Amino acid sequence: MPKDRVAPSRSEITSCVCAHFLGYGNLSSRLWFMGREEGGAEVSHHDVPLRRSLRLRTGFGPAEDMRLVWEDLFGTSRMGGTWRWASRFALAALHGNENPSEEELRRYLLDGVGKLGGSTFCAELLPLPVQKRHFMSWYGKGPWASYGEYADEVGAMRARTYADAWKRLGGERWVLCYDARAVPLLLAAWDGRWERDARREDGEVRWYRLDGGPTLIPTPFWGQGRFSKERLLALARLVRKELRARDGVRP
User: Fold this and answer.
1) pLDDT at 165 over 70
2) How many C-beta atoms surround the C-beta of residue 64 within 10 A?
3) Quick one: pLDDT at residue 221?
4) Helix, strand, coil percentages for the chain (3-state, nearest 5)
5) Dihedral sign (CA 244, 246, 249, 251)
6) How many CA atoms lie within 13 A of 126 on its CB side?
7) Domain assignments of the chain as residue spans, ordered by start
8) Most Cβ neighbours (<10 Å): which of 54, 79, 122, 207?
9) Interatomic CA distance for residues 54 and 16, integer angstroms
10) pLDDT for 52
11) Are 30 and 173 in contact (CB under 8 A)?
12) Are strands 174-177 and 194-196 parallel, antiparallel or unpaired?
């Protein structure tokens, strides 16, 4: 049992799950990053009780500023790991900078990734702060008998939330899904047509174009040796080429 040693109530859990929070950053950005789950780092690695984390999350709007949430509300940092990869990708895809200095990378982490008014948006399919291995010990049985039951039910619900948001927001987007398990749920939730674009594919990387919606690009999980810097930059070049073509820029 984490920190406060009291499992959250059903209402505390479901109000967090049903909140309209989509993620961190600029909803109008053409470049989105989507993960599988928040992970609960503030609970498992820092001094934030689970119930406090849930209460704070229920007050989130559709989009929040990642740095303000994690530093001001949770009193920690989320500026490393996955988000360094996101920064490197965005710098290459949006700005053509494939070899940023450490200072450029650090600055983009602060100003470009998950920043309201920034150039990217960072989404999470599953909204509860938890990792699979902690689920039962943190939440008890609650509304779900297992993590799998939670992931199936809430994942489908959240996928519909994102599908509705993309239709409401309009415009073209490229959504990098760095946990490919999100993609079948997103495709099932889209009530329009979609097609797989084999011309852009490379090994495990797939491209799915949603008619009237974004292009989904699932990749292996970033880091841990599963997706190299070279492959990340190669994919960023393809996305940059697409963005520039849409803007009428000749190759």
Assistant:
1) yes
2) 21
3) 79
4) 45, 15, 40
5) positive
6) 26
7) 10-246
8) 122
9) 6
10) 87
11) yes
12) unpaired
> Are 129 and 156 a contacting pair, CB within 8 Å?
no
User: Two tokens at 244?
Assistant: 């520039």
Stronger pLDDT, 127 or 251, i.e. the higher one: 127
Residue type, 128: L
| Per-chain mean pLDDT for the chain | 87
B/e letters for 188-221, b = 16+ CB within 10 Å, e = fewer, are ebbeeebeeeeebeeeebbbbbbeebbbbbbbbb
How does residue 198 score in pLDDT terms, banded at 50, 70 and 90? confident
- As separate numbers, helices (DSSP H) first and strands (DSSP E) second, the chain gives 10, 8
pLDDT digits (tens, 9 = 90+) for 78-120: 666 788 889 999 999 999 999 999 999 989 988 889 999 899 9
Residue 195's beta-bridge partner residues?
A: 209
Convert the pLDDT of each residue in 47-86 to its tens digit. 788 888 888 888 899 999 988 888 888 887 766 678 888 9
Residue whose C-alpha is closest to residue 19's, from 60, 80, 51, 56: 60
DSSP β-bridge partners for residue 175: 32, 216
CB 101 within 8 A of CB 10: no
CATH dotted code for 10-246: 3.40.470
Distance CA 241, CA 189 (A): 28
Q: Rounded to the nearest 5 degrees, what angle is found at the Cα of 91, between the Cα atoms of 28 and 97?
A: 140
Of the candidates 104, 52, 102, the residue with the CA atom closest to the CA atom of residue 75:
52
Spatial CA neighbour of 234 closest among 102, 84, 88: 88
For residues 23 and 77, the model is more confident at 23
